[in-house]
Design a protein that fits this description.
79 residues; mainly beta
């Protein structure tokens, strides 16, 4: 479960939003999760909210090779 929601199935339409020095939070990410080449990503997935509602949403997260995907957040509910 990620910050009050759970991802059900695969994330699709994945795009890189920022990488390298363009990742605003990279200093915090290095401190909290370990040093890595962080990228900010976005995609669409079916999610289940904390109240049990299932919907499709655009989600954003950070990822680095060898560390994985971290800090998921919902940007907008699609339907």
């Amino acid at each position: 479960m990620h910050s009050g929601f759970k991802i059900l199935g695969e994330i699709r339409d994945i795009e890189t939003i920022a990488s390298g020095r363009g990742v605003y939070m990279r200093h915090r990410l290095n401190r909290v999760h370990g040093k890595g080449r962080w990228r900010k990503m976005k995609g669409v997935a079916i999610i289940q909210l904390a109240d049990g509602t299932i919907c499709e949403a655009e989600i954003h997260w950070y990822e680095a090779h060898g560390i994985g995907r971290r800090d998921f957040k919902i940007k907008r509910v699609i339907r």
